Every structure is written in structure tokens, then in C-alpha cells.
Amino acid sequence: MTSLKKMTALTLALAASGAFAQQGDGTQTWSKSAVVKPDKVPASDARIKSLRVAAGFQITVFAKDLKNARMVAVAPNGTVYVSRRDQGDVILLQDANQDGKADGPPVTVANRAGLHGLAIKDNKMYLATVKEVFVSDILADGRLGPQSMIIDDLPDSGQHPNRTMAFGPDGMLYITVGSTCNGCNESNPENATVLRASPDGKSRTIFASGLRNTIGIDWHPVTGELWGLDHGLDTFGDDVQAEELNKLELGKQYGWPHVFGAGEINPQTTPPGEISKAEWKAQSVAMALGYTAHAAPMQLVFYTGTGFPQQFQGDAFATMRGSWNRSKPSGYELVRIHFNDGKPQRFEPFVTGFLTDGGRTHFARPVGLAQAKDGALLMSDDANGVLYRIAYSGNEAKGRAALGPAPAGPMQAQAAAGNGGPLAKDRPDNAARQAIAVTSSAFPADGQIPKRTSEYADGVSPPLQWNKVEGAKSYVVIAEDPDAKPITPFVHWLAWNIPRDVTALPEGLQEQPRLTEPPGVLQGRNSRGSIAYYGPRPPVGDAPHRYYFQVFALDRLLDVPFGADKAQLLAAMRGHVLAQGHLVGQYQQREQSAK
Questions:
Q1: What is the CATH number of the domain that holds 433?
Q2: What is the pLDDT of residues 101-114, one digit of tens each?
Q3: Residue 29 has what pLDDT?
Q4: Domain limits for position 515
């Protein structure tokens, strides 16, 4: 039997039998899955000439024989860089004579196993592998100087190992980290997220979560808002789940793994801490726009140049690498995303034809995308190793002027929200006549916090005890570091609705939104961006930081959803504090220490 016939037979068998899924709460579904991966054929001249591109545009070969060409980045002087994951390197291409073709064969400028993400800022190249980020100076000839590692502890990979990066208008480095699985509760809260890091790599937080595998991100050049394309769930059939376009905002949760799309429920997963699907959905942001399921979105670019007609400025372009689990293949194309006043309107195909023989074969899987210095788009293919150039050749007037860089205000405002101000205990709204004595069996007042409670070691929450307050209906714990920078004070722990008969918390509470022991306790988002306790992690060599473990007795239970931040929690506490107390511990890290 030929490979194609085997593939067809497998597809028919899978389509004929439903995959039964039951979540355990009465939700049931039947899904039909197909495994169809078109065979690769060479990118011949005839096939390339058969490509269909939007009216007034042409597609040509900028460079070929590049093997596993993945992410594309263009320096301000026009030098083109392409990462090659399978080869573990970055190659350089130049077009000094501006004829729309690379001047010669590629030059290897960096080597690192698993190298994938690229970002350029201030004449420096940032390079990401699965777990590391390096930075190099860009030399006068475009080559890269020695690489310095600035991050060495990104989450390990699993199903989605392809880290990508981009610098935001706020000057911060945004790093995408996919999930380890199709649908599961991750043990590392940095999986299935977009991270926000300082350019030196010394600090980072979780910017947005609940993102199964967001690879392409970019900022709208007018609004300054961050947008990303997320890969939908597999195994639910041809048309489920749609690929998601999301507006990404600080602290927001986008549903994965329990909710997807416009609010559909994943029947195969169970939220932690006895949280219902309805509760998870209420705390999730629905997608802004959906695209054909399993098309596999990759790099995303907002067009700002002058090489295309003006109506293209402010629209986005995205590569769709193509499906492997859809009976009729999707993707294998470049798409345009129309925006109007900063809001997405619709997707439309821009370059198609990479699927051939009725979808049984392909000669490109689009991955990388970047705007060249002359305003053309450069698109990489990691199947046959071609770097394509898409340029406007029509008669319509081109863009009048390039759009400037995206405004920094929206990202800066998000980062500043909730930052600053006094510790929770020092806020006038929390003043109380009664005092609570707070102690810990792990450390004395003003003493050294054990290393096991820090993020340099086990990261377990310390045991806490306090005296009972008559009339209290619940207790709140807030842990903060007033010596941290740039986030001051840095919130390490938010826990509320601790039952009135509970006056102690054991060491190592679960790091999940709701606790089942003690029952009913909810936990919120710390300044790292994760939920529950996050241990001390002061920079190596800093003077000791102080950590205030504050306990508040309230006259009520709080109607605050899990995952709330400090501002939400304090607002709900206002006027209900009966008593308060705190325990201060210190922590200093003198030398780097791996977990």
C-alpha cells in the first residue's frame, strides 16, 4: 500500500470512529479526528510560479536552500537574520544591491542547540533556545559578537518547545512559552504564557496566561496594544478548535486548557481546586477573532512600511504553517488580518498555493515573517528552505509615510497599575484597633527566612500561626517585599476567605487558585504573575530584603474571584478589617544557586 493510501485509510478509520471524552462533571462529547499530513515535494520554479498572491503583488525567491528556516528578523540597516532550529544556528543574508535577492550564500553567525527566537534592539541580537536567552552585539559587517547568557531557566519544553521573542514599545522583552501538552494543568506557571522580562534578563513576570501555544506576537502601531495568535486544541475534529487571535493584556487569562474560543468548554480537562468550568470561564478572556482550525499560526507582523498601498498600514500579516490533523488540510499560506480603528475585522488569504495536488502534497510550510527595509515582506519556509519576498507591483499609490513605532503608553500603564504605594498593613483603610500576633515555626521575627521557602530552592510557603480574633468571619494573608525593584512593593502571596476557625497555615500550601484544605481558601495573582505563593528571589548580592507576612481579620467572607490581584483584594477588604498583625523575615542570596 502506498504512503498516501495508508494515510487515507488511517483518516477514514479515525473519522469513522468517535473519540469519547468525559470530564467527570456530566459533560460529554464525541469528536472525530483525522491525521492528514500532505507529502512534501520540491519547490520547483513551476510550482513557485503557480502561487496565488493578492492583486497587485508578486512573490519571488529572496534566497533558497536554507534548510529549516524558521524565525526572521531584519536589522535597521536591512540585514536579514534567519534562525534554523534543526541546524541550531542563525544565518545572515544581505541585499546590498537592492535587487530583491540575497547577494550570496548565507553566513552562519551564531550556533546554539535548539535556537529559535530572534529579537533586535539597540544594535544587539537576542536569541532564544528552549530554556535560554542569549545576547550578542551586532558588528559592523552584520556578524554577531560573543554571546552572553542572560536567562538560563525558562520552562522546559514538552509538546511546544519553540520560544519566540519581541521587544515591546516599553523597551521590555516579551517571550512566548508554549504548553507542554495539548490540554493539562501545568505544574510550572510559566508554561502556556507570554513573559515580560527586563532587557538584561534579571527580572521577569508572567504577562498573560492560558495560552496553549502563542508564537506570533506584535503591537498595533497606532494603539500600542499587544496581539497574539494562539494555536487551538488538537483531537476535537476538523473544525475545533479555531486558531485564536487575542488582545493580550497584563494579568489576563485566556482560557486554556479548560475553555477555548468564544467560551466553549474542553470536556477532557478538570480545573484544580474543585473549580468549576463555569468559574474558570468567568475568569477567562474570549478570543477576539477566530481562524480555520489547525492552520497553525506562526509569526505575526503589523505592517508599518511604505512599500504597500496605504490601506495595508496597520493591518497584520501572519504565516500559517499548516495542519496535520484535519481531513482537508488548512493553513500552508500567508494571511492578512484587517484592522479598523485598532480592532480586528477579518482574516483573508494573501498568498496561497503551497498546497498542491488537491491538498495531497505541499512545497512550503510558512513560518517566519518580517518587514524588509524596503517595505516588502520576507517569509520563510521550513520545509524546503526558501525565503520568499512579497512586494507590491501594482499601480496604486504606496503608503505616504511609514508608521512610527507603537506608542509605549498602553504597556507602561498596564505595568504601572497596582505598582507602588504602601504595604497593605500601612493603608489607612486597613487600620484596626486590635492587633494580631503572627508567628512562624520556620523563622523568628526579623530573622532569616529558610532557603527552602525561596525560589532559589523549593519555593514552599512558610508555616504561619496567629491568634484568634473574636467576631472574625475570615482571615486574609498578604506577603510583600518593600525592598524589591522595579515592582515595589512586590506581592508574594495573596490568600483570603481563610475560615474563621483556622488560625494556622501549614508549610507548603498548594499553588492553585482554590484550596481544598483548608477548604474554601482562594489565592490571588502575585507580582510575578502566577497564582498563590511565590517565594523570595532577590537579586544575587543584594542586601537582605524584608518580607512582611501580614494577617487581617475580617468581619465577612469576600466575594472576590480566584486569581484576583492586590488592588481587587484591598478594595473588597475596605471597611471590613477588625484586626491586623504581621511578621517580618529577611532573605539574602549571596551566590547563584540552581534549584
A1: 3.90.280.10
A2: 999 999 999 999 99
A3: 54
A4: 419-587
